[in-house]
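Predict the structure of thioredoxin-dependent peroxiredoxin.
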Amino acid sequence: MVKIGDKAPLFEAINDNGDKIALSDFIGKHNIVLYFYPKDDTPGCTREACAFRDNWDLLKDYDVVVIGVSSDNVESHKRFKEKYNLPFILISDPDGKIRELYGAKGFILPGRVTFVIDKNGIIMHVYKSQFNPVNHVKEALRALEEIKKNE
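Done. Here is the predicted structure for thioredoxin-dependent peroxiredoxin.
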């Protein structure tokens, strides 16, 4: 797994609108919360996504782009995003290549891992917890506060 202080591995992917995006589109402009989750519309993943949504006003204070990653296809992401009114980007990683780049694998289920990346593209925080999905946004906010203090 990539670790704190590493340069964030770059990737391109298809987002929930069917558009190609690249991580490099955001580096140099925004902090990034990149979170990997197992599957759209499952109980834990829904709680995690909704926690990011419910803390959106706090997140916006940190000039952040939030990107959720799972192997679900674009249509599944689109339905998930609309159903729960998610204000952030979901990207499809059907072959698990992005997950592999970050080492965000799990044992039985795909891993639930959040990376906080600063504007320079450096990984500043890593949080891994399969069974506490709501804590991911709390950890991300804590890391973003640290980044802001050190700017």
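The chain has one domain: 12-149.
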